[in-house]
């Protein structure tokens, strides 16, 4: 079982989008039984909230089901539980250090690294551009799935 945790600041826009996109890609590939996919926040600001309406709308436009989810903050035990902890941006990486300390097992990465690109997934909470965020999330998730197959 391959266990993936997507992480962003509030766990209502980007990481929940990545969780839903990756779940969809894995299901399309017939690999659902081989993956556990979740998402979490580095902050406590949105704990308990559902995915942002912009994320829900964008995923609906492209025909990807939204995984039922309520925002949660990541914990120290997530490092042991998951094989991959994938951050949406550099700020997330810095904030994750409070929970994971050093990444001795090499589990932590940025999502766009898996698409062969550097940089951050833009936060649509601030930009309002869910299209750009979706395109980057899709690229990263497709790249990650290619790596894991």
Automatic annotation (TrEMBL):
Which family, according to the similarity comment? Belongs to the low molecular weight phosphotyrosine protein phosphatase family.
Name the species this protein comes from. Mogibacterium diversum
Q: Which residues form the active site?
A: 8, 14, 123
Q: Which residues form the Phosphotyrosine protein phosphatase I domain?
A: 2-147
Q: Which domain of life is it from?
A: Bacteria
Q: What is its EC number?
A: 3.1.3.48
Write the protein's name: protein-tyrosine-phosphatase
Q: What InterPro entries has UniProt attached to this entry?
A: LMW_PTPase, Ptyr_pPase, Ptyr_pPase_sf, Tyr_phospatase_low_mol_wt
